[in-house]
Design goal:
heterodimer; A: 864 residues; alpha/beta; FAD/NAD(P)-binding domain; Enolase-like, domain 1; 7 domains; five-stranded parallel β-sheet; 29 helices; B: 129 residues; mainly beta; four-stranded antiparallel β-sheet; three-stranded antiparallel β-sheet; globular; binds siroheme; binds flavin-adenine dinucleotide; binds iron/sulfur cluster; binds FE2/S2 (inorganic) cluster; 2Fe-2S (chain A); oxidoreductase (chain A); NO2/SO3_Rdtase_4Fe4S_sf (chain A); nitrate assimilation (chain A); 4 iron, 4 sulfur cluster binding (chain A)
């Protein structure tokens, strides 16, 4: 018997039922809400999956960036309630009765509709090969698929993906990220056959192989072989070979989910897809179909979000009584897979009559660029492999005659290309964000008419950049240009004394080989600040720049020498951390957390003899608290004698490189994580930077050292090391991004050298790597281009700077206790060097000391 | 309290002994060249109180109370010196409030101030070095 919901809004004049709450379904609901349709109509949503709409496009980021299922959600908090939409999660539609205009769900719920919208998406196509149902075979479409893949991957060493298209490569990236030995099997003679041509395919293959994925093209999968336990054991290929593998992911294309429509007699295409007109209406005027389940008026089924979103808008407009049509869309794509850059847009294969192409190919660096140009010079499309920097500008230019000759658009920067084409060259009609169909004009309008002052604001206001993200870089450039043009004075200056950013000051210091703060302030500070004392923002910031560049610019390597002493933050000035009662703490370096019993005993003895509070820190070392200034040199003399050195707990500098026990002892370890942690800590010790730097090395993917929460984290693989960057604990935790995989020891160190020096060069004061990575234009991709592909040609210099740091390193404490002048500062009172500060007092707690709570004598200190 | 800081010769020429005036008269604190431009030192006063002495970039000397009124810790001498709208100040190393070195007023909270003391450099000739 049919049950009809007693909806709160059944007083509304009609009912819209949406079947399928995927990406396009959600966009449809937003479009309805924008047009006020949700005010007048009752809206009911039947959602098959156990969770509301989420960002399918970024599924792989679950593996690569540690996104959680919640992070992927596309539904803003409170959206459904605010618009009175009834969402039924985990309850798919099972039947449509067009005569009575009702939809029935699996739970038995039956809803009458005035308008029905089908947005049921696609299902992954699994070729009919024997063994395809064995345990260990998967598809890759939903969060549930992904969780299942992740769980199964724990027990196997290798995985194979059937299909080398866009999704297949994403799936391969995911398997690789899970630490599996990964294979891709593609029937066509090249990877991504739909998007790239033969030369592009070759360049792509090289970069995919460079990521440690084995590529097999031109071979079909004949059978999935199954072991005695019923689990996948390998694949039989059409060339007669066998590929042993522990699991298989099918990614051989998708098929529209048009079964509901078929069952209720709506016409579908020969190869599937619900037939719709330009308004996205099916043959039945009360029924619409949008997204991947629809066969559009141009005879195509689109497997991308951007066209789906356009259909959602079109259907919503039509339902709202506005004009709108969907006649076809661009198939531009950019692979999000980490480490492989490939983009294809417009008429990538040059099928237009009379078109010509312009190509640039450099097999050595894996770069291939092809632009397709019409006989009148119109840019029709293109393929970019290895370097997709220009995608953001080229795609919007498609369909117009670019302001520069096409050959200049394919040549690498500096190689005879006279101009780099910036986004300001684009016309206002150019679509900057193709996923959300946002034009340059709309973005400019967001800044000028809607008072947006940041990319964040503009994203919210226009939705540009909120889907695949490939337009975010250009978006940032446009927003800055527009702000500047509208006269918003963006004072990027570091403080009232310098109009420059820290990165600019760094360049000045390096270029002019300056070694003095005064010289910098008097020569390059703001006019009115020259000759002054500066402030507590610029002094430590410049001190840090001078310290990181000391050997190169000829400044003293010791931070307490000469003028540098006056610039340091208090903690650096006393080479110790000031505590709440004015006492200091002591943290000796314990590289990698490894320590001998003898050294532990020395620490214990020193703590006992000076009565210090002793605690194991969160950084795998030991902190001794409660020392008075004049005790610091005595304590450090004992520690230095026992072979300890400064742990730089006081500095914006390298703190610790944590380690797990690793291969040496742990049954799972695949590399010696302790040795690597010690090597890294000793290499980068003393390195001053814009903020503190933390690191960790784990011996396997179980990640006991929590490397993915570090500024640079290293995780062992069977083939070497994976390097993650930009992680953070603290107040705003962030999982690190994978920068490169399967590095040898030397490659790892070289890449970290470059990464750190590039960060030091370009970050703002007190900007952790996590914030920096998100702030700088181009983000991770740009950083990878610079430090992996040397796109700025500065890697040699970065490495040389680090080499100079490493060679110039000296222990600050050993140098201090051997220098009477530096030592003379370590007194409580300059006129009574033997008197301890009477305000530093302690009381006992749990067998140790703690600061005595201070009662402020306010009458004495407060005056009118 | 009023500003009672003495004008002293430029940094390079600074030699002699730094003295600070308390209720009991002038108190010799340290040799002038022990004061690094832009940094402070602490002095213990006869009544058990503490003063923080500073020298700025132009060689000018200042003395204010050393105890940070926001935390009760004797730490102002360990803070960083800076310039804000032509006033020279020290920022407390603990919670970063700034104090005007000339008169001890807190620049971030009008209701709070620390003591300030006159300072001078006793003639170099009078001191055997
Ligand atoms: C001692 C220690 C706590 C402990 O007893 O375990 C500690 C103590 C302090 N932390 Fe921490 N942090 C300590 C481990 C951590 C960790 C854990 C880790 O490193 O694995 C974190 C999270 C990881 C991270 O940084 O991403 C951590 C995140 C912070 C933050 C937040 C940073 C952020 O980016 O949000 C601050 C504040 C800041 O730096 O601005 C902070 C600041 C501080 C300061 C410096 C606060 C201050 O200015 O007085 C503390 C003084 C240390 C001292 O006096 O010696 N501490 N702090 C740990 C010293 C580790 C070491 O051996 O060097
Ligand atoms: C790993 C991956 C990466 C991708 N990368 C990109 C990319 O970079 N760029 C790009 O443009 N596109 C990409 N796509 C494709 C993109 O995700 C789809 O184009 C988009 O999700 C289509 O949206 P949709 O709403 O039509 O379908 P879907 O998002 O699949 O949503 C359909 C929903 O309907 C539900 N449903 C089906 N039948 C019923 C029923 N009877 N009752 C109730 N609910 C039902 C399904 O469970 C599903 O939740 C990617 C896809 C994947 C899987
Ligand atoms: S990360 Fe791996 S190797 Fe290291 S301790 Fe954990 S399980 Fe063992
Ligand atoms: S182009 Fe995909 S989010 Fe803008």
């Amino acid at each position: 018997m049919a049950v009809t919901t007693a909806a709160s809004r059944n007083t509304r004049d009609n009912t819209i039922v949406l079947v399928g709450h995927g990406m396009v379904g959600q966009r449809f609901l937003e479009a309805l809400a924008d047009r006020g349709v949700t005010e007048r109509s009752r809206v009911v949503v039947l959602c098959e999956e156990p969770r509301p709409a989420y960002d399918r496009v970024h599924l792989t980021s679950y593996f690569s960036e540690g996104a959680s299922p919640e992070d992927l959600s596309m539904v803003e908090d409170g959206f459904m309630a605010r618009h009175g939409i009834e969402l039924h999660v985990g309850d798919p539609a099972v039947a449509v009765d067009r005569d009575s205009r009702t939809v029935t769900a699996r739970s038995g719920l039956t809803v009458g509709y005035d308008t029905l919208v089908l947005a049921t998406g696609s299902y992954p196509f699994v070729p009919p090969v024997p063994g395809r149902d064995a345990e260990g075979c998967f598809v890759y479409r939903t969060i549930e698929d992904l969780l299942a893949i992740e769980a199964y991957a724990q027990g196997v060493g290798s995985g194979a993906v059937v299909g080398g298209g866009l999704l297949g490569l994403e799936a391969a990236g995911a398997l690789r990220g899970l630490g599996l030995d990964t294979h891709v099997v593609e029937f066509a003679p090249r990877l991504m056959p739909v998007q790239v041509d033969e030369d592009g395919g070759q360049a792509l293959r090289r970069s995919v192989e460079g990521l440690g994925v084995s590529v097999h093209t031109g071979v079909g999968t004949q059978e999935i072989t199954v072991g005695a336990d019923g689990r996948v054991s390998g694949m039989a290929l059409s060339d007669g070979s066998e590929l042993p593998t522990g699991m298989v992911v099918f990614s051989a294309g998708v098929r529209p989910r048009d079964d509901l429509a078929r069952a209720c007699g709506l016409p579908v295409g020969e190869r599937g897809g619900i037939v719709v007109d330009e308004q996205c209406r099916t043959q039945d005027p009360a029924v619409f179909a949008i997204g991947e389940c629809a066969l559009a008026a141009d005879g195509r089924v689109y497997g991308l979000v951007a066209p789906g979103n356009e259909m959602a808008e079109t259907a919503a407009r039509t339902i709202a009584g506005d004009a709108g049509s969907f006649t076809g869309a661009d198939l531009s794509t950019k692979l999000k897979l980490l480490g492989v850059d490939v983009a294809s847009f417009g008429d990538a294969h040059g099928t237009t009559d009379g078109c010509l192409d312009v190509r640039y190919s450099d097999a050595r660096s894996g770069i291939y660029r092809k632009l397709v140009v019409g006989s009148d010079g119109t840019l029709l499309g293109g393929i970019l492999v290895g370097d997709v920097e220009s995608y953001g500008v080229l795609r919007p230019l498609t369909g117009s005659v670019p302001p520069v000759a096409p050959e200049h658009l394919v040549l690498p920067a500096g190689a005879g290309a006279p101009v780099t084409l910036g986004p300001t060259a684009l016309p206002d009609e150019a679509v900057i964000c193709s996923c959300n169909n946002v034009t340059k004009g709309a973005i400019r309008g967001a800044v000028t008419d809607h008072a947006c002052t940041s990319v964040q604001d503009v994203k919210k206001c226009t939705k540009a950049g909120s889907s695949c993200g490939s337009c975010v870089k250009v978006l940032g450039q446009l927003v800055t240009a527009e702000l500047e043009a509208s006269g918003v004075e963006v004072d990027k200056g570091m403080c009232p004394h310098f109009a420059q950013t820290r990165a600019e000051l760094y360049e000045i210091v390096l270029a002019l080989r300056l070694s003095s703060y005064r010289e910098l302030l008097d020569g390059h500070g703001r006019e009115e600040a020259r000759g002054t004392d500066g402030c507590e923002i610029c002094k430590p910031a410049v001190a840090s720049i001078l310290a990181s560049l000391a050997p190169t610019v000829g400044a003293s390597v010791h931070v307490l020498d000469g003028e540098q002493a006056a610039l340091q933050d208090t903690n650096d000035h006393f080479l110790a951390n000031m505590q709440k009662n004015g006492s200091y703490s002591i943290v000796p370096r314990i590289p990698g957390g490894e320590i001998t019993p003898e050294r532990l005993i020395v620490i214990g003895e020193v703590a006992r003899d000076f009565g210090l509070y002793t605690k194991i820190t969160g950084g795998q070392r030991i902190d001794l608290f409660g020392a008075r200034v004049e005790q610091l040199p005595l304590i450090w003399t004992r520690l230095v004698d026992a072979g300890f050195e400064s742990g730089h707990a006081y500095g914006k500098a390298l703190r610790t490189v944590k380690s797990c026990v690793g291969q040496t002892w742990c049954r799972y370890g695949v590399q010696d994580s302790v040795r690597m942690a010690i090597d890294l800590e000793l290499r980068y010790r003393g390195l001053r930077s814009p903020h503190k730097l933390k690191s960790a090395v784990s011996g396997c993917a179980r990640e006991c050292a929590e490397a993915q929460s570090k500024d640079f984290g290293v995780i062992a693989t069977a083939n070497g090391w994976n390097l993650y960057v930009g992680g953070n604990g603290g107040a705003t935790p962030r999982h690190a991004d994978l920068l490169a995989q399967d590095l040898s020891d030397a490659e790892l160190v070289r890449l970290i050298d470059r990464f750190l020096m590039f960060y030091i060069r370009t970050a703002e004061p007190l900007e952790r790597t996590s914030v920096w990575l998100q702030r700088i234009a181009g983000g991770l991709d740009h950083v990878r281009d610079v430090v992996v592909h040397d796109s700025l040609g500065i890697c040699d210099e970065l490495e040389a700077l680090m080499a100079a740091h490493v060679a110039g390193y000296r222990d600050e404490w050993a140098d201090t206790i051997n220098d009477p002048e530096r030592l003379s500062r370590f007194v409580s009172f300059v006129n009574a060097p033997d008197t301890p500060d009477p305000t530093v007092r302690f009381v006992p707690e749990r067998g140790q000391i703690k600061p005595e709570p201070i009662l402020l004598a306010l009458t004495e200190t407060v005056t009118a | 309290m009023t500003a009672m800081t003495d004008l002293t010769p430029p940094a390079a020429a600074l030699s002699g002994t730094v003295e600070l005036r308390t209720a009991d008269g002038w108190l010799a604190v340290c040799a002038a060249d022990e004061l690094l431009p832009g940094r402070g030192v602490a002095a213990l006063l006869p009544d058990g109180r503490q003063a923080a002495l500073f020298r700025d970039r132009s060689g000018r000397l200042y003395a204010i109370g050393n105890v940070d009124p926001f935390t009760g810790a004797g730490v102002l001498s360990h803070g960083l010196v800076g310039t804000h709208q032509d006033r020279t100040y020290v920022a407390s190393p603990l919670l970063k409030q700034r104090f005007d070195l000339a008169d001890g007023r807190c620049l971030d909270d009008d209701t709070v101030a620390v003591d300030s003391y006159p300072v001078r450099v006793a003639s170099a000739a009078a001191i055997a070095r």
